[in-house]
C-alpha cells in the first residue's frame, strides 16, 4: 500500500488472541504469515516494536490512569510472542520488577502488572532463576497477607507455582516463605479460583520435593486435617468440581498413596528385632490366652513347635519361619503393616477370622496371612501405588479424603470380604487364586461406582456377593458371546457395513459438537484451553483459544480454520511432533496415549492435540480418519461395532429363540412327482 514509514505498521488478527502477522526477520518460529487462512479478518495497527515502545513509556507514567491502561494493554498483548520479544528486548521486565518492588501499585494496577509478568514469562525468553530476591519477597507477601485483593493473590500463587519446578533454590525459597499453614488457610476460603491456585502451588511443592521432604510435608498436612478441609470445602462445596481441581486432587491422592511404596518394596528382614516383634504380635493377639498358659509349662522345643502350629493356623505357608512368606516384594512389609493394623484396630474381627478358620476342616480353611499378602498386592495394583502421577488423569476417590489411614482401613474391609467370599464359594486351598480373582472384581466394580465414604464402600462391596458376580459375568458373557453358527456369522458380515456407516456418522456428529482441549507444556500443567469442532457441512475444521468455563463456544467465535480438503494425514502417539520435542524423555506414558496430530496444507503444518480422555482420543482419531477417507482404527470402533452387532443380531434372531440353528442348511427336498396341487390362476382370470 506504499505507506510512509511502513515499518511502523503491522497486521493483526481481529478475532481470537489478536496475534500479530510476522514474516521476517528470523527466528522462523515467529513467522506466521503463511498460516493466514482465507476468510481471516485482519486490521492495520501499529507494529509490535512501536507498541512495545509506547507501552514501555506508558507504564513509567506518573499519571495513574495512563499507567493502569498501559499495564492492562500490556497484559493483553503479552500473549503474542512477537510483541513479548520486543518488550523484553527493551528491558521491559525490569520496569515490571520495579513497579512490584516499590510496592505503590495496588488493586487493579497490581493485578494487570502480575498478569503481564505471567504472560511474558510464559514464552520462556527469560529464566525464572533471574528473578530478584526483592521481587520474590513481594510476591510471597501478597500470598501471606490477608488484606489483599483476591485476583492479586491468585496471580501471586500462580507465579510461585511456576517458579517451584524450575530450580531447587527457588523451591527451597518458596517452601520456606509460604508455609503449609498459609496454603491450608487458602483452601478454606469460599473463592473457588483461590482454592484452585493454592492447591496448584501445594501440588507443585510436593512434586518438586525429595522423598524425605514429601513424607514430612504429608505428615504435617495429615496432622493439620488437610483431608477434612478438602472433603468439606472442595469436594462437598456448592460449586461443581472443575477438571483442573479434579486433577490436583488425583495427584494429592497419588502422592499420599505412594508414601506406602517404600514399605511395599522392602522385603522382611528376619534379623530385624522390630519386624520380628510385629510378626509375633499377630500370633499373640490371635492366641493370647493359649500362649500365656503354655509359656510356663513347656520346654523351649515344645514352645517352638506350638508357635509353628499357631503360625500355621494364622495361614502362613512357611510356619517354622513365617518371615519367608514376607520376603516377596511387592507387597513386602506393607502386607505385615496391614495385618498388624487390622489386628490392633479391629481385634474382635481379627480374632474371629483366625479362630473361625483354624477350627474348620483343613481343606476349607481360609489362610489369613496368605490372603492378606495377596490382597495387599491387589490393592497396590488397583490404587497404582508406586506408579508415577499422570499429567492428565482426574480419577480420584472422594472417600480417600474422608478417611485417615485410607489404605489400611480399606484393607480391613477387604480382608473380611475375602473371608466372606471364601465361605460363599465353599472354597478349598486349591481355589485360592479363584477366590482372590473374585475379590479383585468385587473391589474394582465397587470402586468404579465412586462411593463417597468407606462405610458406603463397605455396604456396596458386601452386597456384591459371589452369586451377584456370577450373574454379572453371565450377563456380560451373553452380551459378548453370540452363537457361532455359520448362518449367524454370515448375517453378522451382512450387517457390518450398515453399522460401520452408523458409527462413522456418530463420529462426525461428535466432531461437529466439538471438544475442549488443554494445552500441556513440558514445564507445567497449563490453564490454557482451546476448542475444536467440525462445521455442520463437514467441509471445515474450526478451532481457537477459549476461556475457562466456556463449554461449547459458537462456531463463529473460533477464528482458526482448516479446510478438510487440505488435510493430509493423521499422526498418533510417538509420531506426533509435540511428543518428539526435547521434553519427550519426561513425557508420561498417558500423554503419549492421548496425543495425535493433524497434518494439513502443502507446507505440511501440524495441528497438535492432547485428548482429555482415551474416549475422546478414539472418537477424534476415528472422525479425522473418516474425513481423510481411511478406516477407523481405534479400539472404541471395535467395541461399538460389537455392541451394535450384538443388538442387531438379537433383534434379527428374536423369533428363533430356543431353536438350535444348524451349521449347514437343511437339504432341499426332491421335486414332487406331479404339480397338480398347484392352483392355475389363468382359469380364474378367464
Automatic annotation (TrEMBL):
GO annotation, biological process: actin filament organization; apoptotic process; cell motility; phagocytosis
Keyword Iron-sulfur part of the UniProt annotation: no
InterPro entries, per database record: ARM-like, ARM-type_fold, ELMO_ARM, ELMO_dom, ELMO_domain-containing, PH-like_dom_sf, PH_domain
Keywords recorded for this protein, A-Z: Apoptosis, Phagocytosis, SH3-binding
Stored Gene3D superfamilies: 6.10.250.810, Leucine-rich Repeat Variant, Pleckstrin-homology domain (PH domain)/Phosphotyrosine-binding domain (PTB)
Residues of the ELMO domain: 274-447
Pfam families per record: ELMO_ARM, ELMO_CED12, PH_12
SUPFAM superfamilies linked to this entry: ARM repeat, PH domain-like
A single GO molecular function term of this UniProt record: SH3 domain binding
PANTHER family: ENGULFMENT AND CELL MOTILITY, ENGULFMENT AND CELL MOTILITY PROTEIN 3
Role according to the record: Involved in cytoskeletal rearrangements required for phagocytosis of apoptotic cells and cell motility. Acts in association with DOCK1 and CRK. Was initially proposed to be required in complex with DOCK1 to activate Rac Rho small GTPases. May enhance the guanine nucleotide exchange factor (GEF) activity of DOCK1.
Protein name per UniProt: ELMO3 protein
Gene that this sequence comes from: Elmo3
Amino acid at each position: 500500500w506504499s505507506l510512509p514509514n511502513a515499518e511502523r505498521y503491522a497486521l493483526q488478527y481481529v478475532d481470537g488472541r489478536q496475534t500479530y502477522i510476522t514474516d521476517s526477520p528470523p527466528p522462523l518460529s515467529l513467522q506466521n504469515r503463511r498460516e493466514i487462512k482465507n476468510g481471516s479478518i485482519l486490521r492495520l495497527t501499529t507494529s509490535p516494536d512501536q507498541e512495545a515502545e509506547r507501552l514501555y513509556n506508558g507504564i513509567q507514567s506518573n499519571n495513574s490512569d495512563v499507567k493502569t491502561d498501559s499495564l492492562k494493554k500490556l497484559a493483553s498483548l503479552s500473549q503474542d510472542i512477537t510483541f513479548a520479544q520486543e518488550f523484553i528486548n527493551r528491558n521491559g521486565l525490569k520496569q515490571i520488577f520495579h513497579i512490584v518492588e516499590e510496592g505503590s501499585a495496588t488493586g487493579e494496577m497490581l493485578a494487570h502488572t502480575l498478569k503481564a509478568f505471567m504472560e511474558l514469562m510464559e514464552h520462556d525468553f527469560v529464566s525464572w532463576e533471574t528473578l530478584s530476591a526483592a521481587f520474590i519477597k513481594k510476591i510471597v507477601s501478597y500470598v501471606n497477607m490477608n488484606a489483599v485483593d483476591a485476583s492479586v493473590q491468585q496471580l501471586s500463587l500462580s507465579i510461585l507455582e511456576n517458579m517451584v519446578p524450575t530450580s531447587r533454590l527457588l523451591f527451597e525459597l518458596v517452601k520456606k516463605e509460604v508455609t503449609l499453614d498459609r496454603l491450608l488457610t487458602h483452601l478454606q476460603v469460599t473463592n473457588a479460583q483461590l482454592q484452585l491456585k493454592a492447591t496448584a502451588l501445594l501440588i507443585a511443592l510436593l512434586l518438586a520435593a525429595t522423598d524425605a521432604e514429601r513424607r514430612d510435608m504429608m505428615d504435617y498436612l495429615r496432622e493439620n486435617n488437610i483431608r477434612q478441609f478438602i472433603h468439606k470445602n472442595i469436594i462437598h462445596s456448592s460449586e461443581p468440581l472443575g477438571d483442573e481441581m479434579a486433577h490436583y486432587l488425583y495427584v494429592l491422592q497419588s502422592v499420599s498413596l505412594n508414601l506406602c511404596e517404600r514399605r511395599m518394596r522392602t522385603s522382611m528382614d528376619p534379623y530385624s528385632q522390630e519386624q520380628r516383634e510385629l510378626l509375633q504380635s499377630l500370633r499373640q493377639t490371635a492366641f493370647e490366652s493359649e500362649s500365656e498358659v503354655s509359656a510356663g509349662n513347656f520346654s523351649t522345643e515344645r514352645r517352638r513347635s506350638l508357635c509353628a502350629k499357631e503360625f500355621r493356623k494364622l495361614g502362613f505357608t512357611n510356619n517354622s519361619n513365617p518371615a519367608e512368606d514376607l520376603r516377596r516384594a511387592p507387597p513386602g512389609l506393607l502386607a505385615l503393616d496391614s495385618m498388624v493394623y487390622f489386628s490392633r484396630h479391629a481385634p474382635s474381627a481379627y480374632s474371629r477370622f483366625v479362630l473361625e478358620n483354624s477350627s474348620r476342616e483343613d481343606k476349607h480353611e481360609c489362610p489369613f496371612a496368605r490372603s492378606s499378602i495377596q490382597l495387599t498386592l491387589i490393592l497396590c495394583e488397583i490404587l497404582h501405588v508406586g506408579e508415577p502421577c499422570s499429567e492428565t488423569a482426574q480419577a480420584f476417590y472422594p472417600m480417600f479424603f474422608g478417611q485417615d489411614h485410607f489404605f489400611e482401613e480399606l484393607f480391613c474391609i477387604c480382608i473380611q470380604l475375602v473371608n466372606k467370599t471364601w465361605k460363599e464359594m465353599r472354597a478349598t486351598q486349591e481355589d485360592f487364586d479363584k477366590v482372590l480373582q473374585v475379590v479383585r472384581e468385587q473391589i474394582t466394580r465397587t470402586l468404579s461406582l465412586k462411593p463417597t465414604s468407606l462405610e458406603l464402600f463397605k455396604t456396596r462391596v458386601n452386597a456384591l456377593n459371589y452369586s451377584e458376580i456370577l450373574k454379572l459375568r453371565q450377563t456380560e458373557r451373553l452380551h459378548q458371546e453370540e452363537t457361532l453358527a455359520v448362518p449367524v456369522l454370515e448375517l453378522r458380515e451382512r450387517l457390518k457395513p450398515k453399522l460401520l456407516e452408523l458409527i462413522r456418522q456418530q463420529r462426525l456428529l461428535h466432531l461437529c459438537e466439538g471438544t475442549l482441549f488443554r494445552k500441556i507444556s513440558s514445564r507445567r500443567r497449563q490453564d490454557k484451553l482451546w476448542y475444536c469442532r467440525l462445521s455442520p457441512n463437514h467441509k471445515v475444521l474450526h478451532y481457537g483459544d477459549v476461556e475457562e468455563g466456556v463449554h461449547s463456544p459458537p462456531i463463529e467465535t473460533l477464528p482458526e480454520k482448516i479446510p478438510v480438503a487440505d488435510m493430509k494425514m493423521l499422526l498418533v502417539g510417538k509420531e506426533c511432533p509435540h511428543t518428539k520435542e526435547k521434553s519427550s524423555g519426561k513425557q508420561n506414558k498417558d500423554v503419549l496415549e492421548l496425543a495425535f496430530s493433524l497434518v494439513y496444507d502443502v507446507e505440511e503444518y501440524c495441528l497438535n492435540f492432547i485428548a482429555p480422555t482415551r474416549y475422546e482420543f478414539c472418537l477424534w482419531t476415528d472422525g479425522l480418519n473418516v474425513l481423510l477417507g481411511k478406516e477407523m482404527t481405534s479400539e472404541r470402533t471395535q467395541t461399538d461395532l460389537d455392541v451394535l452387532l450384538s443388538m442387531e443380531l438379537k433383534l434379527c434372531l428374536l423369533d428363533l429363540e430356543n431353536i438350535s440353528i444348524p451349521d449347514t442348511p437343511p437339504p432341499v427336498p426332491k421335486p414332487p412327482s406331479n404339480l397338480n396341487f398347484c392352483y392355475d390362476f389363468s382359469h380364474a382370470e378367464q
